[in-house]
Amino acid sequence: MKNQILLGLSLTSLLLPAGLLAAPAPQGGPVAHTTPPLVSPEPPKWEDRRVKGVFEASRMRQAMANLPAAASADEVEVALSEALPQVYRATKGDLPVIGELVAGLRKQPGAVEAMARQYRELPAEAIEQRLVVLGILGEMKRPDAVAQLREVIWAPLPPADSQAELLTERDFEEMVQAKAVQGLAYLETPQADAAVREVIERHEALHVRVSAIDAYMWNHGDSPKTAAELYRLLPAEMHLYVERPRFHSGMDRQEFNRRLRAWQRKWGSRPESPTSDLDHDGGVK
Amino acid sequence: MRAAMNALALVLALVLLPAGAGAVCPNTVETDEQAMWNVHGCWPAFRDWFRPYFNLQHDHWDGGWGWETCDPTQAFPKMWNSAYLITYSLEDWSPGPWHSDIDYQRWGAGSQHGFRFEPEDGGGPYAQAFWGTFRTDRVEMRCPSFNYRTAGQRAGTMLHESGHHIHKDLSHMANRPGSNCSEPCSDDWYFHYFNAYPYGSLAGHKHSPVQIQIEYLCDLAEFGESWVPYMIGVIAQSESNDRMNNRIRNPPGWTCGQPRPVYVPPPPPVCGNGVCESGETSWSCPNDCGSGGGFCGDGFCDVWQGECSSNCSSDCFSGELCQ
Predict the structure, then answer these.
(1) Domain check: are B158 and B285 in the same one?
(2) Which helix (H) or strand (E) holds B128?
(3) Do residues B274 and B129 share a domain?
(4) Is there a contact between B125 and B160 (Cβ–Cβ < 8 Å)?
């Protein structure tokens, strides 16, 4: 008993200074509010320090140039094994070169099957790469890709289980399916349009349905006729997703704001004041 | 007695263990992380600035986290990549992103809001913000934010968590029907128009944590500099839209980007070439578009010209207050 009391006192004396009995301890540091250090608010001026030669456009071009006019899926796959790693290293400024790759693949009969094989070989957690491969498959605008795209879109989703800070496997799979829907809608064939409308009507995930609506509208020129078609197709609670403006780099800002204002008046509640009544400079509270 | 002494020794060992001596997250190799690293090539001047500005401290990020390394498989260099994106990645031409680099940089700066970023070798959420009595104000960056998550997504997480410190009264709220959350996890959207306030003046305008994350990710996807790795932009757009649909209670009313499978954005307009191009205005480029300026009734709240809700209610909502 005496030992237990001594042990208890020892523990108490050790833990109290660390505040462990009062609240969960921070990891790996003293429990004290630190005074923000005096730091320069201005970062160093940006310098172009890019490592040259990381993205090898010539290698990608050569792989495509080596293909015969009507290459088999196997032959295209060999070329893709050279080209896709370059795509993964590309920057936004390299997009025109990726456009060349897509144009080259579009002409190859075996390209859809080869891309589908590449997609299937990617690990599930390689979401960015899956998005990129599906994007290229869709941008090829090949009607024979419908089956491959539908297979992705209708793959069973994991159950919803999520919290704000963490995206789950389901979120990522919904992103992938939304990318596949973009490819399907981009085909603009009667068969593909019907397949997109099926997604709009029946898909289990709100995000995938909403993405399908947006892609369908965009590929039909955002016409009032298409909007009317979707209003007929959709239940009332989904109507607010039909005519949303898109925030993108080529937009006209006044047109964007005009459409956003129109959307707000039709569907939105009065916007809340964006002005905070808090001390924005933060500090210890 | 022996058992008690052993227990005491164990407690002593745990309590006195030096900071940073614990386990670290597994180092993982990601193509996009290396691509991002190749952009700045381990630039020491930026490292020396961002460490104190974002408030990452040596005693937390040393000891296996990569404080001194140029190895982008480790956690600290990955934070470096994300801080670099927050600081430099956006084209700030007008009409450009929702907010500018400097807005996001100030928003995410731990030193400006009294908290620090620390690594944590646990799972669960990407990151978590802590504050209050008997606690160090901090953001714990956990292993899921370092493994198989791009520098852009991590930058969004940093801004999200910073939002908790800036607006401590906000919590993640109840779900909206159709949300894919199984527990309370949706934020409110604090509505504002594009360019509702000029670049550099985001401070003081309330944004929920998920909202600032969505706006940043969309800006990164649409207005990222030409050196931003392509894959970072692709998933930034996807996550922006996913969060808009699945993590916001009152839909924002817009969508991020054009729904084309591979979208090649047009080059920004060139002010001074004598052509009033799409995206240029008399305000942003009077040389090309004339100097007429905005006017009340043009559907745009021209705050830089003194428009506000009391003198131009047709263009400005009540939140757009007069100075």
Answers:
(1) no
(2) strand B127-130
(3) no
(4) no
Q: Does A103 contact chain B (CB < 8 Å)?
A: no
Q: Strands B127-130, B138-142: parallel, antiparallel or unpaired by DSSP?
A: antiparallel
The mean pLDDT value for A80-84 works out to 96
Distance, in Å, from the CA atom of B67 to the CA atom of B70, rounded to the nearest integer, reads 9
CB A94 within 8 A of CB A55: yes
- Look at residue A270 in the predicted model and tell me its pLDDT: 47
Assess whether B212 and B300 both reside in one domain: no
B292 and B243 in a single domain? The answer is no
Phi/psi of residue A246, each to 5°? -105, 130
- Cβ–Cβ below 8 Å for B234 and A251: no
Q: Are residues B274 and B132 in the same domain?
A: no
For residues B223 and B185, membership in a common domain is answered with yes
Chain A residues with CB-CB distance to B33 below 8 A: none
Average pLDDT, consecutive stretches of 10 residues, N- to C-terminus, chain B (323 residues): 52 43 81 92 96 96 94 96 97 81 95 96 89 92 92 97 91 67 77 86 90 96 94 96 90 94 70 70 68 60 65 61 52
List the single residue in B with minimal CA-CA distance to A177: B238
Chain B residues close to A167, C-beta within 8 Å: 239, 242-243
Residue B158 lies in a domain: yes
List chain A residues with CB under 8 Å of B258. 218, 246, 248, 250
User: CA triplet A201, A207, A209: central angle to 5 degrees?
Assistant: 15
Of B17, B255, B99, B228, residue with least CA distance to A55: B228
Provide the whole-model pTM: 0.82
Spatial contact of B123 and B135, defined as CB atoms under 8 Å apart: no
Tokens of B308: 């506000």
Domain membership of residue B301 as a residue range: 270-309
Both B240 and B293 in one domain: the answer is no
Q: Do B60 and A28 touch (CB under 8 A)?
A: yes
Phi–psi pair at A191, nearest 5 degrees: -65, -45
Could you tell me if B256 and B282 lie in one domain?
no
The string of DSSP codes covering B129-183 is EE-STTS--EEEEEGGGTSS--HHHHHHHHHHHHHHHH-TT---BPPPTT-S-SS
